[in-house]
Amino acid sequence: MFFNVNNIFVFPGVFGEDVVTVKEGDTVTLHTDINKKEHDKMLWYFEDTRIALINGHPNTSCLYDGEDGRFRDRLEVDYKTGSLIITDITTEHAGRYEAEIIRSESSGKRQSLNRNRKCDSTKITKKISISHDDTIKTFSMIVIGAPEMVKMEGDTVTLHTDITKKEHDKMLWYFEDTRIALINGHPNTSCLYDGEDGRFRDRLEVDYKTGSLIITDITTEHAGRYEAEIIRSESSGKRQSLNRNRRCDSRKITRRISISHDDTIKTFNMIVIGELRNVIYP
């Protein structure tokens, strides 16, 4: 038996381990299903590296970036239940997750966790041995990459967002983490970028109502990962930073910054097949 919640598949595994299957860009909640008391602490680990210390309240808890910063700005927790929420998942988040409870009666380990109240999100802490008083739940997460689009050189392709875009929302498009389009609802307040080495010059069009991106006369250098990001009209801080300079400089190179939880992402992986010559059929 398996459970399907919003395209997230959870398979009860052997030895108490659940196998969770998600797609890139999903948000997943890892439920502990553990009876957590008010003063219990919860530790979460990814591949034996601590990514969360939950102490009942945000001021005394800590969320960690993890090795190579892969969890930065992606973690949330339920402070009552100890459940872990991971947003905007990528394939680098696939692996083993473990929840460990430090019971309020386990005074020795609780004291060691209380020595330093300051949260250092960059700190790397490996898992130590587990006492018999602790309770564990383990998840193995499988992340399915974005679907691949196979195109021929010279094709025109439209990347449909399938996202509900409001009138005043902004849409950002990235190719391999470099911005190639800023869509602001009207051509006069939007910008199409040439991209690194000018590979997108005179090749981009957009649908200003839906935010979909059109790429004309594609070549093999346009193969790779495309991402659509919506800046909602309510996200005033990021909208103001995008509004500071109204002038469009198509040659400007802008790398993607961290994504806030208010933004919506869709990802495409495009494969471009070059022109076939001298094909011999048996």
Explained architecture:
- Helix content is about 5%, strand content about 35%.
- The protein is mainly β and about 280 residues long.
- It folds into two domains: about 5-145, Immunoglobulin-like (Sandwich); about 150-275, Immunoglobulin-like (Sandwich).
- The radius of gyration is 23 Å and the shape is elongated.
- It comes from Sinocyclocheilus anshuiensis.
- This is Immunoglobulin domain-containing protein.
Task: Give the helix/strand layout.
Blueprint: E1 3-5, E2 8-12, E3 17-23, E4 28-30, E5 41-46, E6 49-54, E7 62-63, E8 75-77, E9 84-86, E10 95-102, H1 107-114, E11 135-144, E12 148-152, E13 157-159, E14 170-175, E15 178-183, E16 191-192, E17 204-206, E18 213-215, E19 224-231, H2 236-243, E20 264-273
Main sheet summary: 8 strands, mixed
Give the overall average pLDDT. Answer: 80
Tell me the name of the CATH homologous superfamily of the largest domain.
Immunoglobulins
Q: Which strands sit side by side, in order, in the main sheet?
A: 1-2-3-11-10-5-6-7
- Give the C-alpha Rg: 23 Å
Q: What percentage of the residues does DSSP assign to strands (E)?
A: 35-45%
The geometry reads as: elongated
Instruction: Count up the domains.
Output: 2
| Structure class | mainly beta
The CATH architecture of the largest domain would be: Sandwich
For this structure, the CATH topology of the largest domain is Immunoglobulin-like
